[in-house]
Amino acid sequence: MSNSFDKIIAKIAKISPDIATCIDTSTHSIKRREILDKKTTCLINIASLTTLGSCHKVLKRSINEAIDADCSCDEILETMLQISFSCGLSRSIDAIFEAKSVFEDRGLLKKKSKDKSDKDDEYETELKYQSENESDDEESKYDSDDGEDKDNSDEKDAQKLETECELDKINDNKVEKK
């Protein structure tokens, strides 16, 4: 048993020694069974606790035990995904955030690689920024009475139209990918 489980049993024993003994004995007898391997029992515990939805501390402990039993982060998350529709999405989402917290604590989160969609998002953001700045520049030119504002307005309109066309192409590509 883990140290945190022993601490919980000790706290329960202060309230009711009989209940603590019952929990400790039954848990040890179940954990000693060798029909299922340690990884499988850990994933079953995670699935059960995810389904309950209100055992965040115990879920975190079980996620740590699963990692110690050589369960990968993907296996843990897949377990949560597999039961998400039977236990309810909100419970599964809560469990996923608990898992994320444990993964972060243990340094197990993969750094997100920049895929094509991330680059598209950056490009779209840059185009939007440029478009906004150009419209700000345009407004300030109209405020000044240089006379150059009419000469540059057609050029600015063309640039703005190009930017909007680029944004439309990006959005069309995203729709096609889905």
TrEMBL record:
One of the Pfam families matching this protein, by short name: CMD
Sequence ranges of Basic and acidic residues compositional bias: 115-131, 153-178
Carboxymuconolactone decarboxylase-like domain segment(s): 31-96
Comp. bias intervals (Acidic residues): 133-152
Region of interest called Disordered, as start-end residue ranges on this chain: 114-178
GO molecular function, one term: peroxiredoxin activity
PANTHER family per UniProt: 4-CARBOXYMUCONOLACTONE DECARBOXYLASE FAMILY PROTEIN, GAMMA-CARBOXYMUCONOLACTONE DECARBOXYLASE
Name recorded for this polypeptide: Carboxymuconolactone decarboxylase family protein
Organism: Photobacterium kishitanii
Source lineage: Bacteria, Pseudomonadati, Pseudomonadota, Gammaproteobacteria, Vibrionales
